[in-house]
Amino acid sequence: MLAKATKIASKTRYLGESALHLARRASHRLARHVPLTPKRMRNCEPLVSFTFDDVPESAYRIGAPILEAHGARGTFYIATGLLGHRSDFWTVAGASEVADLYQRGHEIGLHSHLHRSSSLLTADEFAADLRRNRETLQDIDPGIDARNFAYPFGQCTLARKHQLNRLVRSSRSIYAGVNRGLFDPHYTRATELCDTRLTPERLEARLDEAQRSRCWLVFCIHDVADTPSPLGCSPGFLSQALEGARRRGMRIVTVDAALDLIAGAATMPLPENLIPAQEFSRG
Q1: Most buried residue among 103, 131, 229, 276 by CB atoms closer than 10 A?
Q2: C-beta of residue 103 within 8 angstroms of C-beta of residue 141
């Protein structure tokens, strides 16, 4: 009798966990396809942003200087609870590196404190974690005003997306594609700039697509190394993306600057060393 009861309890628990998993997957799919506050893109030329998640030390030591050598700045999404920690693939940059990135003109973004999937957190837990993320960044440098978020693991739910709509300016996913027309700022699409997942030919095709449609292309990057992790990017591949954007006359801007341009709230002069986009049009 006891064995039978244990078996029933185990099966009930399994069914409950399966139902919860399916509910989370369904909510993530809804979050992907249901825009809460869609924005009309008003930028006059194609935009590209280079974003870094988790910020391994190599993103600080190698990735940021490569951007700066091209006159560009990136957006670094910081999970403050991971600062200085070692993972399976890299050591995360520390507080002093985050402060230095900010002082050098890069944007510092929110990536949660504990780096837990937002789909696993209640509204109160998520709000508290994001508040701690923001406060820790301000402790690192009081000037840091982190207004843009990236979903840990790219996972969200419709409820957390609705919550973020009140807490941040944008929320970046890892769902592949470009942002065009009427776009969803709380499910911003991104292309993973990763040697194992993106070929040089597909990279050039994505840049061509962004140029032709005058849309916003966002790259998601983790480590930057000669022998990158399965999620990482080699210095040469990062340079190829930057040089490809420059050849096409695309503006390389941070996420926050891109949102200003998309809203028509800012104008930025095109650097003299960039070739006008129309000279390379293939459309």
Answers
A1: 229
A2: yes
Residue by residue, DSSP assigns 236-271 as HHHHHHHHHHHHTT-EE--HHHHHHHHTT----PPP
Q: Are 198 and 177 in contact (CB under 8 A)?
A: no
Band the pLDDT of 171: cuts 50, 70, 90: very high
Among the listed residues 195, 202, 190, 189, the one whose alpha carbon sits nearest the alpha carbon of residue 232: 195
Bridge partner list, 219:
50, 191
CB 50 within 8 A of CB 244: no
> Going from the N-terminus, what domains does the chain have, and what CATH number goes with each?
39-102+173-280 (3.20.20)
Task: Quote the pTM value.
Answer: 0.84
CA atoms within 13 A on the CB side of 142: 0
